[in-house]
Design goal:
mainly alpha, 0% strand, globular
Length: 69
């Protein structure tokens, strides 16, 4: 996976490379999971990418939510 260092990189990865529509519902669901330390996928994310990147991704989903309102 390429290095995601900016919101635009992340958004391109989600919407273009992964072909996932960035909808309000998707953002809400992902934020709920990413904010849940007991979620299995969140635990794997942290183990792979670390807490700092988790915080960035949460911020990017929050930014996407604001844009979608």
């Amino acid at each position: 996976m390429q290095s995601l260092t900016t919101y635009d990189d992340w958004k391109h990865c989600i919407t273009v490379l992964c072909r996932i529509p960035l909808t309000q519902t998707y953002a809400e669901e992902r934020l709920a999971a990413l904010r849940n330390p007991a979620d299995h996928h969140t635990q794997k994310f942290i183990a792979t990418w670390g807490e700092a990147h988790l915080a960035r991704v949460i911020g990017w989903f929050e930014q996407a939510e604001r844009e979608l309102q």
